[in-house]
## 1
Amino acid sequence: MNITVRDNPEQHRYEAVADDAVAGIIQYRDRHDGARVFLHTETMPDFAGKGVASVLVRQALEMERERRQMVVPVCPFVSAFLERHPEYKDVTERPTR
């Protein structure tokens, strides 16, 4: 399955697209200081269990790294992904609650 990730700023989300359908999303909000807060990750039911969310998070983090924007991982899935992938430490910031 070929997955393409795109930023959809009008909807405040990253979208994983597979087979011409949105397969997963990461909802975000932008802070006044330029950091992007990853709020929620969701995989659509038809694509569950196929690794869509991991591809989505990885590519979204890569996009933020290219933009030199910090990511605040509020979403539990993103936080767990980051624990397993410390190579993204340079692009992440601990959430403040």
## 2
Amino acid sequence: MRLSRQRRMVLDLLWSEKAHLSARDIFEKLNAQGRNIGHTSVYQNLEALQSAGVIECLDRASGRLYGYRSDPHSHLTCVESGAIQDLDVELPPDLISRIEDLTGFTIESYTLHLSGRPRTGG
């Protein structure tokens, strides 16, 4: 994949923010930094980067969010703010074995999606 100037701008933003952003967020942040890029260019470059496996795309009810990681990992979503945190979680081998026994499948990889809210008072 050719890394054009616009793709580099999108990647640099995702890597520096280390957050999951919508295409609109990316468009607004880049233009606020004085980097002139159009809506269409943002969408096209996000699609190309995601298709090439360079970034991740999460489909949410509110729309797509893009993240800087492409490796297998899990997510924790705050039910109050909607913020998404990347997690590197390894399940205990005995739990994987139990899942395999229940399903009849051999687990080769997994990602978890957890939802919760911040603890109060401590």
